[in-house]
């Protein structure tokens, strides 16, 4: 699936010194890695809107315009040139729109397949792990969103994919397997079993039989989705717990540098997330996160509308 990516939008921001932030530098490197594999076009997008920029010295978001002076522009153009020198077709776009909205609009305009943004290195100052822009993108962006942690590497080495065996879960497994194959990363797949109330009302033997059969069926279904080289090589973690607890337990035990999971949305209500495990994970994960939208996701943003 990673080979099918044709358009990438990378949200980048600058530090107060005018250099790319640590997260943005890795986002550019991640885009370079994917684009080299897939032959994808890359759009670097920077928002100059003032409230998008955290001031470490002031301990608050900037309340003044953030013009791109010559020094800032040189940093942005250097990032662009680094991609072009690698043989990647790339462009730089500046926007005075809110960062998340500018990114979503570019995704809609280009039909982009992937958004990559960096976790703010200054997030410790405002209490957020992956940031408000990431949360907005997870809720509203119609394509996959990859939020990278600044001190990670461009090619992940330990991947955890979470599936509920739904169609979007199948897409998660396929994408995680594709990334694992490309970079030789260890692949772990987690699935949380649910115990129906009717089974809970029966005796313990019936419950144990149900769980054993459910686990075997889940393992067989996941294995069938994997390419031949990964069957038997990927580590499967299937147990009785909630999806959130299953993911967090695996994160604590396995220390992955990338978690891949799907988002869900209620049909007919554009952009609304209901019981979204992926969104709840934003405040708990301290690693990179790649989220995949369901095929029927309805983007609440429309081009040309205020």
Write a brief structural summary.
The protein has helices spanning 22-38, 70-85, 99-110, 123-126, 131-140, 167-183, 197-200, 204-225, 243-254, 277-281; strands at residues 7-11, 41-47, 54-55, 60-61, 90-95, 114-118, 144-148, 158-162, 186-193, 235-240, 258-262, 288-292. The protein has 306 residues and is an alpha/beta fold. The protein has a ten-stranded mixed β-sheet, sandwiched between helices. Strands 3-4 form a two-stranded antiparallel sheet.
Task: Describe the protein in words.
By secondary structure, the protein is an alpha/beta fold. The chain is 39% helix and 20% strand. It contains 10 helices and 12 strands. The protein has helices at residues 22-38, 70-85, 99-110, 123-126, 131-140, 167-183, 197-200, 204-225, 243-254, 277-281; strands spanning 7-11, 41-47, 54-55, 60-61, 90-95, 114-118, 144-148, 158-162, 186-193, 235-240, 258-262, 288-292. A 10-stranded mixed sheet has the order 5-2-1-6-7-12-11-8-9-10, with helices on both faces. The protein has a two-stranded antiparallel sheet with strand order 3-4. Mean pLDDT is 83; it is low at 121-130 and 265-275.
């Amino acid at each position: 699936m990673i080979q099918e990516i044709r358009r990438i939008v990378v949200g980048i921001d600058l530090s107060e010194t005018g250099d790319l932030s640590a997260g943005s530098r890795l986002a550019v490197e991640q885009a370079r890695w994917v684009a080299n594999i897939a032959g994808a076009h890359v759009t670097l997008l920077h928002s100059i809107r003032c409230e998008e920029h955290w001031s470490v010295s002031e301990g608050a978001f900037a309340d003044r315009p953030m013009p791109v002076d010559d020094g800032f522009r040189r940093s942005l153009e250097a990032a662009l040139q680094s991609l072009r020198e690698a043989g990647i077709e790339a462009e730089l776009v500046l926007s005075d729109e809110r960062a998340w909205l500018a990114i979503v609009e570019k995704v809609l305009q280009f039909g982009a397949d992937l958004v990559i943004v960096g976790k703010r290195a200054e997030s410790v100052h405002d209490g957020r792990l992956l940031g408000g822009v990431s949360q907005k993108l997870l809720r509203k962006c119609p394509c996959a969103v990859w939020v990278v942690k600044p001190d990670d590497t461009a090619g992940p080495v330990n991947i955890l994919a979470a599936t509920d065996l739904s169609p979007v879960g199948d897409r998660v497994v396929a994408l995680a397997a594709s990334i694992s194959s490309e970079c030789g990363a260890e692949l772990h797949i987690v699935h949380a079993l649910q115990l129906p109330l009717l089974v809970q009302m029966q005796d313990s033997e019936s419950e144990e039989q149900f769980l054993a059969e459910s686990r075997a069926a889940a393992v067989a279904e996941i294995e069938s989705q994997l390419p031949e080289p990964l069957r038997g090589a990927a580590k499967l973690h299937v147990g009785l717990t909630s999806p959130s607890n299953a993911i967090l337990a695996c994160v604590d035990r396995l220390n992955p540098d990338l978690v891949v999971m799907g988002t869900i949305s209620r049909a007919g209500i554009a952009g609304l997330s209901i019981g979204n495990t992926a969104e709840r994970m934003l405040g708990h994960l301290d690693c990179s996160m790649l989220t995949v939208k369901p095929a029927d996701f309805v983007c609440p943003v429309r081009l040309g509308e205020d």
